[in-house]
Each structure stands twice: as C-alpha cells, then as structure tokens.
Amino acid sequence: MDREVIEQKLESLRRCLRRIAEKCPTDPGKLEQDPDLQDIIVLNLTRAVQLCVDIGAHLVSSMQVSPPDTMGETFDVLTKSGIIPEALAIHLKKAVGFRNIAVHNYEQINWVIVHTIARDYLDDFSEFARITASSLIK
User: Fold this and answer.
1) Which of 16, 47, 77, 103 is most exposed by smallest CB count within 10 Å?
2) Averaged pLDDT for residues 57-74
3) Would you please indicate which residues are annotated as catalytic (active-site) residues?
C-alpha cells in the first residue's frame, strides 16, 4: 500500500468537502436556481465519492481478498475486513448510486436531494477519511 498516494487522495477529499460546505446554500431553492452552485456542488460530490472508491480500492489491493466487481462492493470488502462499519458502507454505496446518476445522467438530478446530501451527509465522507487515515498509522 502506497501511503503517499492515499494521503494525497485524502487531502483531495478534504478539499472537496470544504468546497461543498463553503458553497452549499442554506436554502435548497437557491441551489435549484443557480447553475454555478449546482456545478460546484455536484462536481465536488462526485469527486468525493470517486476519491473514497479510489482509496478503498487501494486498501483492498493490499489485502488477500478477491477484488470487488463494482465500486459499491469496495465498501463491502472494507466492511468484511473490519476496516469500516457496515452503516458507513451502506451510506457510501448510496453515494456511489448518486455519483452514477450525476455522471451518467441516468435520470434528472433532484436538487433537493443534492442539497440534503451536501448539508447532511458530508460526515460520511469525513468519517471514511478519519478511518482511512488512522489505518495508515497502524
């Protein structure tokens, strides 16, 4: 496992989370009306999800386990290996679903949901970063 790679990705993740927190308006209606805020929030949310997947995949690659078939399964492997709690894995797998909608335009984005994610669920990403950083110390 390359600690420097993970540390760089963790710093990028923290930067994305700060950007989301700085730019997310208190009112979801403002997000619905402002395409610039939409771009900033969605770009940084999708980056945050991708960074968590990348970090997770990097951790999994250093284990004696079969590689996951999907991005979401990365978090299942981390749970089975005792690295992250199951509740966090469930939330991060949902975040992967959001990322897929945002990146591939599977359906029209619901800005109220995006606002809720940005206001109420950034702690999931922060928790993943804390756990990952502490696993580097061990």
Assistant:
1) 103
2) 91
3) 99, 104
